[in-house]
Inverse folding.
Protein backbone atom coordinates (compact mmCIF):
# COMPACT_ATOMS: atom_id res chain seq x y z
CA UNK A 1 0.00 0.00 0.00
CA UNK A 2 1.22 3.52 -0.85
CA UNK A 3 1.86 5.39 2.43
CA UNK A 4 4.08 8.21 3.71
CA UNK A 5 6.73 5.69 4.71
CA UNK A 6 6.93 4.40 1.13
CA UNK A 7 7.88 7.87 -0.16
CA UNK A 8 11.42 7.16 1.03
CA UNK A 9 11.79 4.16 -1.29
CA UNK A 10 9.79 4.88 -4.45
CA UNK A 11 10.51 2.64 -7.45
CA UNK A 12 12.81 3.90 -10.15
CA UNK A 13 10.96 6.15 -12.61
CA UNK A 14 8.42 7.33 -10.01
CA UNK A 15 8.84 10.82 -8.58
CA UNK A 16 7.48 11.83 -5.20
CA UNK A 17 6.61 15.18 -3.61
CA UNK A 18 9.66 17.47 -3.48
CA UNK A 19 8.47 18.92 -0.18
CA UNK A 20 7.87 17.72 3.35
CA UNK A 21 4.36 16.30 3.17
CA UNK A 22 4.12 16.10 6.97
CA UNK A 23 4.69 19.87 7.22
CA UNK A 24 1.75 20.72 4.96
CA UNK A 25 -1.25 22.32 6.66
CA UNK A 26 -4.74 22.73 5.11
CA UNK A 27 -5.91 25.89 3.42
CA UNK A 28 -8.42 24.43 0.94
CA UNK A 29 -11.47 22.18 1.30
CA UNK A 30 -12.69 20.35 -1.79
CA UNK A 31 -16.11 18.69 -2.21
CA UNK A 32 -16.26 15.78 -4.66
CA UNK A 33 -12.90 14.02 -4.63
CA UNK A 34 -13.12 12.35 -8.03
CA UNK A 35 -10.46 11.49 -10.56
CA UNK A 36 -10.64 14.84 -12.34
CA UNK A 37 -10.04 16.81 -9.16
CA UNK A 38 -7.09 14.62 -8.22
CA UNK A 39 -5.51 14.93 -11.68
CA UNK A 40 -6.24 18.64 -12.06
CA UNK A 41 -6.66 20.93 -9.03
CA UNK A 42 -4.69 18.74 -6.62
CA UNK A 43 -2.03 18.31 -9.31
CA UNK A 44 -1.59 22.10 -9.55
CA UNK A 45 -1.59 22.62 -5.78
CA UNK A 46 0.99 19.85 -5.47
CA UNK A 47 3.28 21.88 -7.74
CA UNK A 48 2.72 25.02 -5.67
CA UNK A 49 3.75 23.16 -2.53
CA UNK A 50 6.89 22.08 -4.35
CA UNK A 51 7.96 25.66 -5.04
CA UNK A 52 9.46 25.92 -1.57
CA UNK A 53 8.58 28.11 1.38
CA UNK A 54 4.87 27.25 1.04
CA UNK A 55 3.12 24.74 3.30
CA UNK A 56 -0.32 26.17 4.14
CA UNK A 57 -2.29 25.22 1.00
CA UNK A 58 -2.91 21.55 1.65
CA UNK A 59 -6.33 20.17 0.69
CA UNK A 60 -8.94 18.41 2.80
CA UNK A 61 -11.26 16.34 0.64
CA UNK A 62 -14.92 15.85 1.53
CA UNK A 63 -17.21 13.12 0.24
CA UNK A 64 -20.94 13.84 0.31
CA UNK A 65 -22.52 10.50 -0.56
CA UNK A 66 -23.40 7.73 1.89
CA UNK A 67 -23.17 4.00 1.34
CA UNK A 68 -20.67 1.15 1.32
CA UNK A 69 -18.86 2.36 -1.81
CA UNK A 70 -18.29 5.82 -0.34
CA UNK A 71 -17.12 4.35 2.95
CA UNK A 72 -14.67 2.10 1.11
CA UNK A 73 -13.30 5.11 -0.79
CA UNK A 74 -12.81 7.03 2.45
CA UNK A 75 -11.02 4.05 4.00
CA UNK A 76 -8.70 3.79 1.01
CA UNK A 77 -7.74 7.46 1.13
CA UNK A 78 -7.03 7.40 4.84
CA UNK A 79 -5.15 4.08 4.70
CA UNK A 80 -2.85 5.57 2.05
CA UNK A 81 -2.31 8.83 3.95
CA UNK A 82 -4.28 10.43 1.09
CA UNK A 83 -1.41 9.74 -1.34
CA UNK A 84 -1.91 8.45 -4.88
CA UNK A 85 0.04 8.07 -8.09
CA UNK A 86 -0.70 9.92 -11.32
CA UNK A 87 0.46 8.55 -14.67
CA UNK A 88 0.50 11.24 -17.34
CA UNK A 89 0.61 9.87 -20.88
CA UNK A 90 0.97 11.73 -24.16
CA UNK A 91 -0.64 10.71 -27.46
CA UNK A 92 2.74 9.31 -28.59
CA UNK A 93 2.81 6.98 -25.56
CA UNK A 94 5.47 8.79 -23.53
CA UNK A 95 4.62 8.69 -19.81
CA UNK A 96 5.74 10.01 -16.45
CA UNK A 97 4.60 8.86 -13.02
CA UNK A 98 4.46 10.95 -9.87
CA UNK A 99 3.00 10.62 -6.39
CA UNK A 100 0.77 13.56 -5.42
CA UNK A 101 0.79 14.74 -1.81
CA UNK A 102 -1.45 17.83 -1.86
CA UNK A 103 -4.49 16.00 -0.45
CA UNK A 104 -3.84 15.84 3.29
CA UNK A 105 -7.07 14.51 4.75
CA UNK A 106 -10.40 13.03 3.69
CA UNK A 107 -13.72 13.29 5.51
CA UNK A 108 -16.96 11.50 4.69
CA UNK A 109 -19.67 14.03 5.49
CA UNK A 110 -22.55 11.61 6.19
CA UNK A 111 -20.41 9.89 8.85
CA UNK A 112 -19.45 13.06 10.71
CA UNK A 113 -21.07 16.28 9.48
CA UNK A 114 -19.94 18.14 12.60
CA UNK A 115 -16.29 17.47 11.77
CA UNK A 116 -16.76 18.87 8.26
CA UNK A 117 -18.41 22.00 9.65
CA UNK A 118 -15.55 22.43 12.11
CA UNK A 119 -13.00 22.26 9.31
CA UNK A 120 -14.91 24.74 7.13
CA UNK A 121 -15.20 27.14 10.08
CA UNK A 122 -11.45 27.11 10.72
CA UNK A 123 -9.87 30.48 9.76
CA UNK A 124 -7.02 28.53 8.11
CA UNK A 125 -9.42 27.43 5.36
CA UNK A 126 -9.45 30.23 2.81
CA UNK A 127 -10.74 28.49 -0.31
CA UNK A 128 -13.56 25.97 -0.85
CA UNK A 129 -13.68 24.24 -4.23
CA UNK A 130 -15.96 21.64 -5.74
CA UNK A 131 -16.54 19.21 -8.58
CA UNK A 132 -20.19 18.23 -8.13
CA UNK A 133 -21.03 17.73 -11.86
CA UNK A 134 -22.67 20.10 -14.30
CA UNK A 135 -26.13 19.23 -12.99
CA UNK A 136 -25.27 19.44 -9.31
CA UNK A 137 -26.02 23.11 -8.65
CA UNK A 138 -29.77 22.69 -8.24
CA UNK A 139 -30.73 25.61 -10.49
CA UNK A 140 -34.20 25.60 -12.03
CA UNK A 141 -33.65 25.94 -15.80
CA UNK A 142 -37.00 27.66 -16.26
CA UNK A 143 -36.68 30.31 -13.56
CA UNK A 144 -32.89 30.49 -13.28
CA UNK A 145 -33.23 30.35 -9.49
CA UNK A 146 -32.00 27.94 -6.83
CA UNK A 147 -34.57 25.24 -6.13
CA UNK A 148 -35.66 24.97 -2.51
CA UNK A 149 -38.15 22.14 -3.15
CA UNK A 150 -35.36 19.54 -3.24
CA UNK A 151 -35.69 17.05 -0.38
CA UNK A 152 -32.05 17.31 0.74
CA UNK A 153 -32.17 21.11 0.52
CA UNK A 154 -35.31 21.20 2.66
CA UNK A 155 -33.55 18.99 5.20
CA UNK A 156 -30.59 21.36 5.36
CA UNK A 157 -32.81 24.41 5.79
CA UNK A 158 -34.54 22.70 8.71
CA UNK A 159 -31.39 21.13 10.23
CA UNK A 160 -28.51 23.58 9.64
CA UNK A 161 -26.24 21.82 12.17
CA UNK A 162 -26.49 18.47 10.36
CA UNK A 163 -26.44 19.29 6.64
CA UNK A 164 -26.40 16.82 3.76
CA UNK A 165 -25.66 19.04 0.76
CA UNK A 166 -22.64 21.13 -0.17
CA UNK A 167 -24.93 24.17 0.06
CA UNK A 168 -25.90 23.38 3.63
CA UNK A 169 -22.31 22.77 4.71
CA UNK A 170 -20.85 25.88 3.10
CA UNK A 171 -23.60 28.29 4.17
CA UNK A 172 -23.66 27.07 7.78
CA UNK A 173 -19.86 27.37 7.93
CA UNK A 174 -20.04 30.90 6.56
CA UNK A 175 -22.69 31.75 9.17
CA UNK A 176 -20.33 30.54 11.91
CA UNK A 177 -17.41 32.47 10.44
CA UNK A 178 -19.49 35.65 10.25
CA UNK A 179 -20.60 35.30 13.85
CA UNK A 180 -17.02 34.64 14.99
CA UNK A 181 -15.61 37.60 13.04
CA UNK A 182 -13.71 35.33 10.64
CA UNK A 183 -13.29 36.25 6.98
CA UNK A 184 -15.41 34.55 4.33
CA UNK A 185 -13.64 32.14 2.01
CA UNK A 186 -13.53 31.94 -1.76
CA UNK A 187 -15.99 29.47 -3.31
CA UNK A 188 -14.65 28.14 -6.61
CA UNK A 189 -16.45 25.72 -8.90
CA UNK A 190 -14.20 23.42 -10.92
CA UNK A 191 -17.06 21.95 -12.96
CA UNK A 192 -17.50 22.17 -16.72
CA UNK A 193 -20.04 24.98 -16.70
CA UNK A 194 -20.07 28.26 -18.53
CA UNK A 195 -19.59 31.00 -15.92
CA UNK A 196 -19.29 28.33 -13.24
CA UNK A 197 -18.52 30.95 -10.59
CA UNK A 198 -21.70 32.85 -11.39
CA UNK A 199 -23.66 29.58 -11.22
CA UNK A 200 -22.09 28.79 -7.85
CA UNK A 201 -22.93 32.26 -6.54
CA UNK A 202 -26.54 31.83 -7.61
CA UNK A 203 -26.73 28.44 -5.88
CA UNK A 204 -25.06 29.28 -2.56
CA UNK A 205 -26.57 32.75 -2.18
CA UNK A 206 -29.94 31.29 -3.21
CA UNK A 207 -29.72 28.67 -0.47
CA UNK A 208 -28.66 31.32 2.05
CA UNK A 209 -31.52 33.58 0.98
CA UNK A 210 -33.99 30.80 1.74
CA UNK A 211 -32.42 30.37 5.16
CA UNK A 212 -31.57 33.93 6.26
CA UNK A 213 -31.63 36.99 3.93
CA UNK A 214 -29.15 38.86 6.14
CA UNK A 215 -26.70 35.97 5.94
CA UNK A 216 -27.18 35.86 2.16
CA UNK A 217 -26.33 39.56 1.92
CA UNK A 218 -23.17 39.04 4.02
CA UNK A 219 -22.05 36.12 1.84
CA UNK A 220 -22.64 38.07 -1.34
CA UNK A 221 -20.65 41.00 0.01
CA UNK A 222 -17.74 39.02 1.47
CA UNK A 223 -17.30 35.68 -0.32
CA UNK A 224 -16.01 35.55 -3.88
CA UNK A 225 -16.97 33.20 -6.72
CA UNK A 226 -14.34 33.30 -9.50
CA UNK A 227 -15.27 31.91 -12.89
CA UNK A 228 -12.86 29.32 -14.21
CA UNK A 229 -12.22 27.05 -17.19
CA UNK A 230 -10.80 23.61 -16.38
CA UNK A 231 -9.53 21.04 -18.84
CA UNK A 232 -7.94 17.62 -18.59
CA UNK A 233 -9.08 14.21 -19.82
CA UNK A 234 -9.09 11.80 -16.89
CA UNK A 235 -10.65 8.39 -17.59
CA UNK A 236 -12.32 6.04 -15.14
CA UNK A 237 -9.85 3.63 -13.53
CA UNK A 238 -11.19 0.07 -13.36
CA UNK A 239 -9.72 -2.78 -11.31
CA UNK A 240 -7.97 -4.04 -14.45
CA UNK A 241 -6.48 -0.60 -15.17
CA UNK A 242 -5.37 -0.32 -11.53
CA UNK A 243 -3.45 -3.56 -11.88
CA UNK A 244 -1.81 -2.40 -15.13
CA UNK A 245 -0.83 0.97 -13.65
CA UNK A 246 0.69 -0.66 -10.58
CA UNK A 247 2.54 -3.22 -12.68
CA UNK A 248 4.01 -0.39 -14.69
CA UNK A 249 4.93 1.83 -11.72
CA UNK A 250 5.99 -0.86 -9.26
CA UNK A 251 3.70 0.67 -6.64
CA UNK A 252 0.98 -0.95 -4.55
CA UNK A 253 -1.52 1.88 -5.00
CA UNK A 254 -5.24 1.37 -4.40
CA UNK A 255 -6.02 4.79 -5.91
CA UNK A 256 -3.88 5.25 -9.04
CA UNK A 257 -4.85 7.71 -11.77
CA UNK A 258 -4.12 8.04 -15.46
CA UNK A 259 -4.50 11.32 -17.35
CA UNK A 260 -3.37 12.87 -20.59
CA UNK A 261 -0.27 15.04 -20.50
CA UNK A 262 -2.36 18.09 -21.49
CA UNK A 263 -3.84 20.22 -18.72
CA UNK A 264 -5.25 23.74 -18.55
CA UNK A 265 -6.81 26.02 -15.94
CA UNK A 266 -7.91 29.60 -16.60
CA UNK A 267 -9.19 31.58 -13.60
CA UNK A 268 -10.50 35.01 -12.74
CA UNK A 269 -8.29 36.45 -10.01
CA UNK A 270 -11.06 37.07 -7.49
CA UNK A 271 -10.14 35.57 -4.12
CA UNK A 272 -11.55 36.67 -0.78
CA UNK A 273 -8.58 35.82 1.46
CA UNK A 274 -5.49 34.99 -0.58
CA UNK A 275 -4.63 32.13 -2.90
CA UNK A 276 -1.75 29.80 -3.86
CA UNK A 277 0.76 31.06 -6.44
CA UNK A 278 -0.91 28.97 -9.13
CA UNK A 279 0.36 31.27 -11.88
CA UNK A 280 3.81 29.74 -11.26
CA UNK A 281 2.46 26.31 -12.20
CA UNK A 282 0.84 27.22 -15.51
CA UNK A 283 -2.57 28.49 -14.37
CA UNK A 284 -3.62 31.51 -16.44
CA UNK A 285 -5.25 34.35 -14.48
CA UNK A 286 -7.49 36.68 -16.49
CA UNK A 287 -10.06 39.40 -15.86
CA UNK A 288 -12.73 37.65 -17.92
CA UNK A 289 -12.73 33.90 -18.58
CA UNK A 290 -15.68 33.98 -21.02
CA UNK A 291 -13.69 33.61 -24.25
CA UNK A 292 -11.74 30.63 -22.93
CA UNK A 293 -14.94 29.00 -21.68
CA UNK A 294 -16.56 29.39 -25.07
CA UNK A 295 -13.69 27.67 -26.84
CA UNK A 296 -13.42 24.78 -24.43
CA UNK A 297 -17.13 24.12 -23.97
CA UNK A 298 -18.22 24.63 -27.58
CA UNK A 299 -15.24 22.99 -29.26
CA UNK A 300 -13.80 20.29 -27.00
CA UNK A 301 -16.76 19.33 -24.80
CA UNK A 302 -19.41 19.62 -27.50
CA UNK A 303 -17.47 17.57 -30.04
CA UNK A 304 -16.55 15.04 -27.32
CA UNK A 305 -20.18 14.19 -26.59
CA UNK A 306 -21.11 14.32 -30.29
CA UNK A 307 -18.42 11.72 -30.96
CA UNK A 308 -19.46 9.53 -28.04
CA UNK A 309 -23.25 9.62 -28.57
CA UNK A 310 -22.64 8.48 -32.15
CA UNK A 311 -19.83 6.10 -31.27
CA UNK A 312 -21.83 4.25 -28.62
CA UNK A 313 -24.56 3.50 -31.15
CA UNK A 314 -21.94 2.13 -33.53
CA UNK A 315 -20.57 -0.15 -30.82
CA UNK A 316 -17.44 1.81 -29.93
CA UNK A 317 -16.65 1.70 -26.23
CA UNK A 318 -13.49 3.81 -26.29
CA UNK A 319 -13.05 7.38 -27.49
CA UNK A 320 -9.93 6.73 -29.55
CA UNK A 321 -11.71 3.87 -31.37
CA UNK A 322 -14.64 6.14 -32.23
CA UNK A 323 -12.36 8.87 -33.57
CA UNK A 324 -10.48 6.31 -35.67
CA UNK A 325 -13.71 5.83 -37.64
CA UNK A 326 -13.16 8.16 -40.65
CA UNK A 327 -16.86 9.00 -40.90
CA UNK A 328 -17.03 10.15 -37.28
CA UNK A 329 -13.77 12.07 -37.56
CA UNK A 330 -15.16 13.87 -40.61
CA UNK A 331 -18.36 14.63 -38.70
CA UNK A 332 -16.36 16.26 -35.90
CA UNK A 333 -14.11 18.23 -38.25
CA UNK A 334 -17.07 19.52 -40.24
CA UNK A 335 -19.03 20.38 -37.10
CA UNK A 336 -16.11 22.39 -35.75
CA UNK A 337 -15.25 24.02 -39.09
CA UNK A 338 -18.76 25.03 -40.11
CA UNK A 339 -20.92 25.20 -37.00
CA UNK A 340 -18.61 26.34 -34.22
CA UNK A 341 -15.39 28.09 -35.22
CA UNK A 342 -17.04 30.76 -37.42
CA UNK A 343 -19.17 31.87 -34.44
CA UNK A 344 -16.42 32.10 -31.80
CA UNK A 345 -14.36 35.18 -31.09
CA UNK A 346 -11.09 33.86 -29.70
CA UNK A 347 -9.17 35.68 -26.97
CA UNK A 348 -5.95 37.32 -28.10
CA UNK A 349 -3.24 34.78 -28.78
CA UNK A 350 -5.56 31.77 -29.20
CA UNK A 351 -5.48 30.03 -32.60
CA UNK A 352 -8.77 28.14 -33.12
CA UNK A 353 -7.40 26.00 -35.95
CA UNK A 354 -4.52 24.89 -33.77
CA UNK A 355 -6.92 24.26 -30.91
CA UNK A 356 -9.09 22.09 -33.19
CA UNK A 357 -6.13 19.92 -34.19
CA UNK A 358 -5.10 19.67 -30.55
CA UNK A 359 -8.59 18.50 -29.56
CA UNK A 360 -8.63 15.76 -32.19
CA UNK A 361 -5.13 14.66 -31.20
CA UNK A 362 -6.21 14.42 -27.55
CA UNK A 363 -9.24 12.30 -28.47
CA UNK A 364 -6.94 9.92 -30.37
CA UNK A 365 -4.80 9.15 -27.28
CA UNK A 366 -5.05 5.36 -26.99
CA UNK A 367 -3.27 5.33 -23.65
CA UNK A 368 -6.26 7.03 -22.03
CA UNK A 369 -8.57 4.10 -22.68
CA UNK A 370 -11.29 6.69 -22.16
CA UNK A 371 -14.78 5.24 -22.17
CA UNK A 372 -17.45 6.64 -24.47
CA UNK A 373 -20.05 5.77 -21.82
CA UNK A 374 -18.24 7.98 -19.31
CA UNK A 375 -18.21 10.95 -21.66
CA UNK A 376 -21.89 10.44 -22.57
CA UNK A 377 -22.98 10.22 -18.92
CA UNK A 378 -25.33 12.95 -17.64
CA UNK A 379 -26.00 13.84 -21.25
CA UNK A 380 -29.06 15.90 -20.34
CA UNK A 381 -26.88 18.38 -18.46
CA UNK A 382 -24.09 18.29 -21.03
CA UNK A 383 -26.38 18.92 -24.00
CA UNK A 384 -27.57 22.12 -22.32
CA UNK A 385 -24.14 23.35 -21.33
CA UNK A 386 -22.15 22.32 -24.41
CA UNK A 387 -24.57 22.79 -27.30
CA UNK A 388 -26.95 25.63 -26.42
CA UNK A 389 -24.89 28.54 -27.77
CA UNK A 390 -24.16 26.77 -31.05
CA UNK A 391 -27.82 25.82 -31.44
CA UNK A 392 -28.91 29.37 -30.73
CA UNK A 393 -26.51 30.88 -33.27
CA UNK A 394 -27.46 28.34 -35.94
CA UNK A 395 -31.20 28.93 -35.57
CA UNK A 396 -31.01 32.71 -35.29
CA UNK A 397 -28.57 32.88 -38.21
CA UNK A 398 -30.66 30.44 -40.31
CA UNK A 399 -27.63 28.17 -40.74
CA UNK A 400 -27.36 24.53 -41.73
CA UNK A 401 -28.88 22.44 -38.90
CA UNK A 402 -28.01 18.98 -40.20
CA UNK A 403 -25.06 18.18 -37.94
CA UNK A 404 -26.71 19.63 -34.85
CA UNK A 405 -29.89 17.70 -35.58
CA UNK A 406 -27.91 14.49 -36.07
CA UNK A 407 -26.15 15.02 -32.73
CA UNK A 408 -29.46 15.46 -30.88
CA UNK A 409 -30.89 12.42 -32.65
CA UNK A 410 -27.83 10.34 -31.69
CA UNK A 411 -28.21 11.45 -28.05
CA UNK A 412 -31.89 10.50 -27.91
CA UNK A 413 -31.28 7.17 -29.66
CA UNK A 414 -28.34 6.42 -27.36
CA UNK A 415 -30.72 6.65 -24.39
CA UNK A 416 -32.36 3.46 -25.70
CA UNK A 417 -29.55 1.42 -24.16
CA UNK A 418 -28.77 -0.79 -27.16
CA UNK A 419 -26.34 -0.24 -30.02
CA UNK A 420 -27.01 -1.11 -33.65
CA UNK A 421 -25.33 -4.51 -33.21
CA UNK A 422 -27.84 -5.41 -30.49
CA UNK A 423 -25.41 -5.06 -27.57
CA UNK A 424 -26.84 -3.54 -24.40
CA UNK A 425 -25.17 -0.86 -22.27
CA UNK A 426 -26.16 1.29 -19.31
CA UNK A 427 -26.30 5.05 -19.57
CA UNK A 428 -26.21 7.39 -16.59
CA UNK A 429 -28.71 10.25 -16.41
CA UNK A 430 -28.76 11.31 -12.73
CA UNK A 431 -31.36 14.03 -13.31
CA UNK A 432 -33.85 11.67 -15.03
CA UNK A 433 -37.06 10.50 -13.35
CA UNK A 434 -39.13 7.61 -14.73
CA UNK A 435 -41.17 10.05 -16.82
CA UNK A 436 -37.99 11.29 -18.52
CA UNK A 437 -36.95 7.79 -19.51
CA UNK A 438 -40.46 7.23 -20.85
CA UNK A 439 -40.23 10.40 -22.96
CA UNK A 440 -36.81 9.44 -24.31
CA UNK A 441 -37.96 5.97 -25.34
CA UNK A 442 -41.46 6.82 -26.57
CA UNK A 443 -42.37 5.50 -30.03
CA UNK A 444 -43.60 9.01 -30.81
CA UNK A 445 -40.23 10.53 -31.66
CA UNK A 446 -41.42 14.06 -30.89
CA UNK A 447 -41.77 13.27 -27.18
CA UNK A 448 -38.02 13.50 -26.60
CA UNK A 449 -38.19 17.27 -27.13
CA UNK A 450 -40.08 17.53 -23.83
CA UNK A 451 -36.95 16.57 -21.88
CA UNK A 452 -35.46 19.27 -19.65
CA UNK A 453 -32.23 18.96 -21.66
CA UNK A 454 -33.84 21.18 -24.27
CA UNK A 455 -35.35 23.77 -21.93
CA UNK A 456 -32.77 26.49 -22.79
CA UNK A 457 -34.01 26.44 -26.39
CA UNK A 458 -37.70 26.99 -25.63
CA UNK A 459 -37.52 30.65 -26.63
CA UNK A 460 -36.19 29.74 -30.09
CA UNK A 461 -38.16 28.73 -33.16
CA UNK A 462 -37.06 25.09 -33.19
CA UNK A 463 -39.61 23.90 -35.75
CA UNK A 464 -37.06 23.15 -38.48
CA UNK A 465 -34.57 21.69 -35.99
CA UNK A 466 -37.15 19.38 -34.43
CA UNK A 467 -38.26 18.14 -37.85
CA UNK A 468 -34.64 17.44 -38.77
CA UNK A 469 -34.07 15.57 -35.49
CA UNK A 470 -37.09 13.32 -36.09
CA UNK A 471 -35.88 12.55 -39.63
CA UNK A 472 -32.40 11.76 -38.34
CA UNK A 473 -33.80 9.43 -35.66
CA UNK A 474 -35.92 7.67 -38.26
CA UNK A 475 -32.84 7.28 -40.46
CA UNK A 476 -30.81 5.83 -37.57
CA UNK A 477 -33.58 3.35 -36.77
CA UNK A 478 -34.01 2.37 -40.42
CA UNK A 479 -30.44 2.15 -41.67
CA UNK A 480 -28.07 2.80 -38.81
CA UNK A 481 -25.83 5.68 -37.82
CA UNK A 482 -23.71 5.69 -40.97
CA UNK A 483 -26.78 6.08 -43.19
CA UNK A 484 -28.07 8.95 -41.07
CA UNK A 485 -24.82 10.95 -41.00
CA UNK A 486 -25.08 14.36 -42.67
CA UNK A 487 -23.47 14.34 -46.08
Amino acid sequence: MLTLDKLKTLPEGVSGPNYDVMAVTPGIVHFGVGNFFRAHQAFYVDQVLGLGGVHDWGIIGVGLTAGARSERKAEQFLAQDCLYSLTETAADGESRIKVVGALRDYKLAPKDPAAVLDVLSDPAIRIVTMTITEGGYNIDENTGKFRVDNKAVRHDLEHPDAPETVFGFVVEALRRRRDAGVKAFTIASCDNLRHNGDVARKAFVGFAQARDPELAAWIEANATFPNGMVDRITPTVTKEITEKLNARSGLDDDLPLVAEDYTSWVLEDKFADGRPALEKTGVKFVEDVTGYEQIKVRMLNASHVLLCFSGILLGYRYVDEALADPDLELLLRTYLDRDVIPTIKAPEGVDLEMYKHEVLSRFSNKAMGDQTIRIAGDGASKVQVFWTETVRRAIEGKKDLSRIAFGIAAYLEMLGGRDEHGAHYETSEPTFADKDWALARDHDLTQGFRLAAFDPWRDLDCTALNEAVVKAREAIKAGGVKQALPR
About this structure: The first strand starts at residue 14 and ends at 15. The domain at 4-286 is CATH 3.40.50.720 (Rossmann fold). The mean pLDDT is 95.
